[in-house]
Specification:
It is a single chain. The protein has 349 residues and is an alpha/beta fold. Helices cover 43% and strands 17% of the residues. The chain has helices spanning 4-22, 52-67, 80-89, 105-112, 134-137, 179-190, 205-217, 231-235, 248-255, 278-283, 285-293, 298-310, 315-325, 327-331, 336-346, and strands at 44-49, 73-78, 94-99, 116-133, 169-172, 197-200, 223-228, 238-240, 270-277. The strands form 2 sheets. Strands 3, 4, 5, 6, 7, 8 and 9 form a 7-stranded mixed β-sheet that branches. Strands 1-2 form a two-stranded parallel ribbon. The longest helix has 19 residues, at 4-22. The radius of gyration is 21 Å and the shape is globular. The relative contact order is 0.17.
């Protein structure tokens, strides 16, 4: 019988194998600056993480790498853990979002052996938590006016009724393969809710978003995990449920399925870093210098994501709009000649 670890390893290999069969996903295929010489003689490979803000940052980074530095780029699509393993092996060069508060064990082990590096924050102020629409807890028709915290959820399984599991409520967790899925699953146990709520894991980020949007359009109750920056929390009025204050040791135990069950605590306000493969970093110091200076905020990113949703922009179109609107920001990330090339490519000169 295969052990859990072997099954996990097999799943990782299968995921990357399937990604390889599908071939690299081109981030952009248009022009690169003709007078810029990329320090690599192959495409730079980005981690194609499966959520919107990562897609947006990939598009911004690809535009810069191509037009300011003359590099070709590709991306390998996948979830956090297999792509982190790929980053450690050198299959992937850059991961634009490494959530420092919920590092996958694959990252921790790779960092300990020097195969990956955290080169600094992408945005320093991300928030995660469990949310309900405001109409669930406020207003004359609110079905749960006394619901304030996660400890209160035991009294509201009927409000968040799971039609497929009679007698239970439904909690919309994050996606399998994301580190937050493990944390949320352990929180359900720590808060005494595991037997009261179905731990529902949507297959994709789009499926999670669609479930929340469908419920809010009909003013139905829904209990869900989410995070910022995201367009969803900018588009709906949601309330974050209270949790016991963040404690580092308790939260670290929540991240590790093999650790004794800890008490539940809130996510910390997270700093989200840019991670790179160490061999890539050694081979391309000019690119590392730019990526180290690359820094945004949750507010900036949330605005770009909301524009993507409302104006039906692709990640590449949103990246171009962001770069055109924030030239003073990114011009500080790179030497003047590189900035001039990117400005010309964006039509800013």
């Amino acid at each position: 019988m295969m052990t859990h670890a072997r099954l996990a390893a097999a799943a990782t290999i299968l995921t990357l194998f399937l990604s390889a069969l599908a071939g690299p996903v081109p981030v952009r295929a248009d022009t690169a600056a003709s007078d810029a010489v990329c320090p690599l003689d192959r495409p730079v490979v980005l981690a194609g993480l499966d959520w919107d803000s990562a897609r947006f940052h990939n598009a911004v980074a690809a535009r810069i790498l191509q037009d300011a530095y003359g590099c070709d780029t590709t991306a390998i699509a996948g979830a956090t853990i297999p792509l982190t393993n790929g980053l450690a092996r050198g299959d992937v060069d850059i991961m634009m979002e490494v959530w420092r508060n919920s590092l996958a064990e694959a990252w921790v082990k790779a960092a300990e052996t020097g195969r990956v590096r955290d080169i600094g924050p992408n945005f320093p102020d991300a928030v995660q938590g469990w949310y309900v629409p405001r109409y669930v807890v406020e207003g004359p028709d609110a079905p749960a006016p006394d619901l304030k915290s996660v400890q209160d959820l035991a009294n509201y399984t009927e409000v968040f009724r799971d039609r497929e599991e009679p007698g239970k409520g439904r909690f919309y967790n994050c996606l399998a393969g994301w580190a937050c899925e493990i944390v949320n699953t352990r929180k359900l146990e720590a808060y005494g809710l595991a037997g009261l709520y179905t731990n529902f894991k949507p297959g994709t980020g789009e499926a999670l978003t669609a479930a929340v949007i469908a419920a809010t359009r009909r003013k139905k109750p829904i209990l869900f995990y989410h995070w910022t920056p995201s367009w969803l929390l900018g588009a709906i009025d949601a309330v974050k449920l209270e949790e016991p204050p963040f404690e580092p040791e308790a939260f670290d135990a929540l991240r590790r399925p093999d650790a004794p069950l800890p008490k539940g605590v809130a996510y910390p306000v997270a700093s989200v870093a840019i991670g790179v493969n160490s061999d890539f970093a050694d081979a391309a110091p000019e690119l590392i210098s730019m990526l180290t200076a690359y820094e945004t905020t949750s507010s900036l990113v949330a605005g770009a994501l909301l524009a993507m949703e409302q104006d039906k922009l692709t990640a590449e179109e949103a990246a171009d709009a962001f770069l055109k609107a924030n030239a003073p920001l990114w011009q500080g990330w790179m030497p003047a000649p590189n900035a001039a090339r990117l400005s010309a490519a964006l039509g800013l000169n």
